[in-house]
Sequence to fold (117 residues):
Amino acid sequence: MTDSSALDAEDRKIVTLARSARARNGVPEGAAVRDETGRTYVAGTVALESLRLSAVQTAVAMAVASGARSLEAAAVVSEAAEVAAGDLAAVRDLGGAGTPVFLAGPDGEVRLTAGAE
Fold:
């Protein structure tokens, strides 16, 4: 469990961006990732007939497509009780095993941090 008030300003920012993406696009999940330069990438769930990506996977793909070499942190806003294994794998592919993934509810309160080891 992670107390949202204990997050630093940059981590709170990506949680807020993820929450905004979810609300704005009316999708089940919103996500944001921050790369090694401090740039952020924000995405929602992609649910097309021929393509399905979680919000985290979409945000990671956007970061890679923009030239990011690594990730500092990720956030996902969802009703889920835990971070999906595929989301953790996508973050680890670019960020490594120690990259934190903050899971927040629709209210923006961080319920847990996964991946930080």
